[in-house]
Amino acid sequence: MTRRRQLLKAGALGATASFTTGAYAQTQPSVRWRMAALYPRSLDTCYGSTEQMCKRVAELTNGKFTITLHPPGDLVPPLQVLDAVSAGTVEAGQVSGSFYFGKNPALMFESGLPFGMNVRQQNAWLYEAGGLKEVQKVFAGFNCHSVPCGNFGTQMGGWFRKEINSLKDLSGLKMRIGGFGGQVVSRLGVVPQMIPGGDLYAALEKGVIDAAEFVGPYDDEKLGLAKVTQYYYSPGWWEGGSAQVSAVANQKAWAALPKDYQAAFEVAAFESNMRMLAIYDSKNPDAIQRILSSGVKLRWFPKEILDVAYDTTISMLEEISSKDADFKAIYQHYRNFLNKQSSWYRVADHFLDSYSLSRRGR
Amino acid sequence: MTRRRQLLKAGALGATASFTTGAYAQTQPSVRWRMAALYPRSLDTCYGSTEQMCKRVAELTNGKFTITLHPPGDLVPPLQVLDAVSAGTVEAGQVSGSFYFGKNPALMFESGLPFGMNVRQQNAWLYEAGGLKEVQKVFAGFNCHSVPCGNFGTQMGGWFRKEINSLKDLSGLKMRIGGFGGQVVSRLGVVPQMIPGGDLYAALEKGVIDAAEFVGPYDDEKLGLAKVTQYYYSPGWWEGGSAQVSAVANQKAWAALPKDYQAAFEVAAFESNMRMLAIYDSKNPDAIQRILSSGVKLRWFPKEILDVAYDTTISMLEEISSKDADFKAIYQHYRNFLNKQSSWYRVADHFLDSYSLSRRGR
Fold it and tell me: Residue A342 and residue A357: Cα distance in Å, rounded?
């Protein structure tokens, strides 16, 4: 009998499967975690995909490991999520490094750099080139274990009351923009403002601000800003091609989990990471069409502005590197990978994307 | 006491977690599956990522649900994997629709269409726009349940002994290329040949064939074809921007699984889908540099050829649609989504990718 035939004989369907009926794991430990969300329920894509992640964890553990997601303000306000998980006040949190950039600039390697990696490059860097270990070291400084759990892709550049034709049009422009991106644009003459999403309509209508960036078409549409602005700009270069979200767990709570619960958390985060992007990619096309049909005009930032923004970004990243050896080490790791990755990306993926896009219907 | 303080008090770290020691699930059913691989072990990325998927399933079920991956030829030859799973001879298989295209052309919606979706578009279509349901209906016709478990991204156009400057250079060209792509290029004058990967070196060296497509830099490099050809062409437009791989399970075996084992299989496939692409994205950049430093010249197919190939692809897809109502329904679903998706992709992601690539080091 050949090896193949032996294997086939041994393995006829079901022959090696032994089922017991119904009874599942009465002896699994019950673990109940709370998770503090960064994004509100109204952003149903980024809130909802993390909620789905929690459901998946429960499903994988037959309901024994449950994580309840709480909206911002329910347990802690959004800007305190990282602190709360760090202190162990809550077991887990949904975070984006850009919100906590002031605590440690290296957190931006989690959330995305201006003109940084696109989603594929970010995932390759994180999962297969040692990037995640670097990011996890940064979060370990906050007593947290982090795993990527979502991505927005490239965001929009935001809503502008006036057209931006040159660098001088940015001078003195009051724009809602935060994080490292806010610091970069301030060197371009913009006056960054921090205003909650829900207040943007009134602020733009009354001219308290001249411009506001938020997310992308699907989320932006909900704010109704097309009624109080004339121009919708692209791209949101400040978080680059990959605006990442992570799930963090308090290190002590993480270490106390059984291995298979840790595996359930990690693998559910992979699914959530893919799904959040897929949801945005499936919803943004219709949203941008609805927005543009309401009369607002689509514009791209002129090359003059992108060039200065790019150069300013690189100088600022080098400035931080010169003062912060930990940041420098991660930045060099990131930049080396990105340069090499980009050489290859031009060869096949970007070339074919460009050609195919040139042939498809508008 | 405010709701927030009540919640915090109730949930101080660990307060709600009740652990029992060590004892895990003695009563979970033991299930052992075999899985027939499509790709050989030598393609460590696509073989290895499916092997990792199997390990993750075991980890998630505390070793109770094990899937053993067998290399092609061990249980069944690669071209018989779908038949074997369909018949229940083996419980699961690793497949790519392009290999079984002759059985039903709609299988190409799983593996990728010429000039088709890129990876993000494919994932958005599959996971969030109903695409996966359509693909699963096609596999259900073979008694299989399918889940995506890997992606190559855009592949290379392959190895050519002579430079291709115009359409007439393709006339009579003997090229190793299979599947639907082979049918398209045959209308461009190419004479498609089916030759196993391991025989390509000799066939090119002796001039039995003039050209051969295989995978991308990391896998291609192993065949050593740079020694017997002058030109390495891009892109491999025949599987588009997303060359997908799926894990299929025999429907009866699938239906017999406990729900949490089904969940473990599905979620491990999400991880594998992301990881396989991330591995290629992390390995291809070095591989293409090594290949080019060996003296072979990188070329892109000229626009004249791409234009005719694109038009021919569209006509052939319409020809199949006119004869096959099931194919037509999926094709329209796919095409509508792709056109809409492309309109949005041009706005932010592709624009920022193009700009950033123009600024990065070569």
Answer: 19
